[in-house]
Amino acid sequence: MFERRCISTKTTGIIKDINIDYETRKPKISLLLDTKEIDVVEQLKNENKLNIDLKKYRKKRSTDANNYFWKLLQELCELAEIDTKEDYKRRVKELGIYRRFKIEKDNVNTFEKMWTAQGIAWFCEVFDTEFIENIEFKIINAYYGSSSFNTKQMSRLIDGVVQDCKAYGIETKTPQEINSLLESWDKK
What we know:
188 residues; alpha+beta; two-stranded antiparallel sheet; 6 helices
């Protein structure tokens, strides 16, 4: 049985030149790629059509700081015999990292499903109720998961769990090691 091997490459680079193709009037882009896989590029050149995804370059964010936070939180909650997810929610609420939405009462469940689908640490709570021309709206605080936090927010979250861990005698990384995790966290 003949199996066609999928040829692909993922790399970074820059747009070197942009022209207009005279026949089709479509943009013609010249790329300068950061790859040494010239054989793959040559093979792709012979394909009739390619999937192309051009977007702004961002360094990948390290998950080490978030993983460290969750490791400490789980260890702490196990020792203190409290629910990890509930303690996480308490900590995020204390930091106040959320977005407030005004949603018609009938659409609250749909919104919550969509928001919480982003990860186990994304959650919502009804903050208040408001009526506009006899239509009931719920004011929702939608809390972001820690994976979306910036360095300052992540630092505050880790500091809080580290302090609690120390009170329980749980060993933590040194401040220098934690700063190193946070430095790699912000490089995205």
